[in-house]
Amino acid sequence: MIMPVLQEVKELSRFFQDFSMSHAGRECNKVAHEVARQVSSTARFGVWHREFPTCVQELLEQDCNHLC
């Protein structure tokens, strides 16, 4: 299922002088994970104009407001 995506990335990477790819788990990229969850097998695309899901706002606030 993911092979066509990886093949396209490989092809596009030829246009760059240097290219590397690494895996980031859900905990490292909560916003991307949550946005991906907003679509399903029946609704494969999601578009937000000027507004985005509330859950994304909350995750961004958590990421940007670390308390030590």
Structural topology:
Blueprint: H1 3-13, H2 30-37, H3 54-64
Provide a quick synopsis of the model.
The protein is mainly alpha-helical and 68 residues long. 44% of the residues lie in helices and 0% in strands. The protein is built from 3 helices and no strands.
Key traits:
68 residues, mainly alpha, 44% helix, extended
The CA-CA distance between the termini, in Å, is 41 Å
* Broad shape: extended
Q: Taking all residues together, what is the mean pLDDT?
A: 77
Major β-sheet profile: none
Q: Share of helix among residues?
A: 40-55%
Q: Which segments are poorly predicted (pLDDT under 50) over 5 or more consecutive residues?
A: none
Class from secondary-structure proportions: mainly alpha
Our count of helices gives 3
Total E-strand runs: 0
Order of helices and strands: HHH
Number of discrete domains: 1
Percent of residues in beta strands? under 5%
Rg for CA atoms: 16 Å
